[in-house]
Amino acid sequence: MRFLSDLWRILRHDKGALIGGAIVLIYCLAAVFGPIFVEVGNEQDASQAYLAPSLQHPLGTDALGQGVLSQIIVGTRPIMIVGVLSAVVTVFVGVAIGLLTGYVGGVADTVIMRITDIFLTIPGLPLIIVLASVINTTNPVVLALILSITAWAGLARAIRSQAMSLRSREFVEAAKLQGVSLSNMVGRQLLPNVGPYVAIHFLLAITGAIYASVGLFLLGIAPISGNNWGIMINLAMAQGALYTTDSAFYLFSPMAAIVILQVAFVFFSRALDSVFNPRLRVQ
Question: ABC transmembrane type-1 domain location, by residue (predicted)?
């Protein structure tokens, strides 16, 4: 409750962050409830193809006569699942490894950091493309794991550096003298001090995973099945959307959805930074 009250107080003083948070909330609601209230059928009606925006279809229709806005809403859920799950895995693994190795040090730190360095040297994008091609799945959970397979390594390195600087601070020495457990030291003493960095990285990890997943569908590497923004762009390109202005809304609507979400996360991250950083907190 303290977190929510602090967040609300900061949002009231930062209109940009408030707008960003409201947009993120709208996307989350669309992901949760959108497929319940909006349905995208398999019917094809050539007479309804590429209709201009109207009250019935606020963003027009695609080549099959289906509403673009309906596809945007229905496609929000799989994209958000991939983005959030990938960010959770990336942040959890990166923060856990970084804090533990930075605090414990010694042989464990050396061995784990050498493994981390191997992941850092692996070219992430080619590996993701190869894995996505071999596994060939549209399961959001599997896609999230693929996208986070190397993303945690850089975060682990950065968190380890902060943990090494924190382990000689007075509050850590005091906690040692009190005999706190390793989980208490990492979770309650060190983690709050890297909170701002972790929170910002979490939001950026979501947008990075969304970009990557859309790219896999756009390039046709992931199976073209179901509804999501990447599949919409892929189908729009395949149906010649670049060669006719009639399909502009169909082509650019999913791109606009991604850009708006990205900007909203950037604005909202200012509020999270203030919540976790006492020096920026609004009194």
Answer: 76-273
Close Cβ partners of 36 (under 8 Å, ≥ 6 residues apart): none
Q: Is the residue at 121 inside a domain? A: yes
Going by C-beta distance under 8 Å and a sequence separation of 6 or more, which residues neighbour residue 26? none
- Return phi, psi of residue 96, to 5°: -60, -50
Rounded to 5 degrees, φ, ψ at 67 are -65, 130
DSSP-derived secondary structure letter, 105: -
Does any domain span residue 112? Answer: yes
How far, rounded to the nearest angstrom, does the alpha carbon of residue 237 sit from its chain's CA centroid?
Answer: 25
Residue 4 inside a domain? The answer is no
Count of structural domains, the chain: 1
Q: Which residues contact 146 (CB under 8 A, 6 or more apart)?
A: 128, 131, 132, 135
d(CA 96, CA 105): 14
Residue 251 sits in a domain whose CATH number is 1.10.3720.10
Q: What is the DSSP letter of 152?
A: H
Look at residues 22, 6, 5 and name the one whose alpha carbon lies nearest to residue 282: 6
pTM score, whole prediction = 0.84
Tens digits of residue pLDDT in 202-259: 988 998 999 898 888 888 887 777 778 888 888 888 877 777 777 788 888 999 999 9
Neighbours of 15 (CB within 10 A): 10
Structure tokens at 37: 């209230």
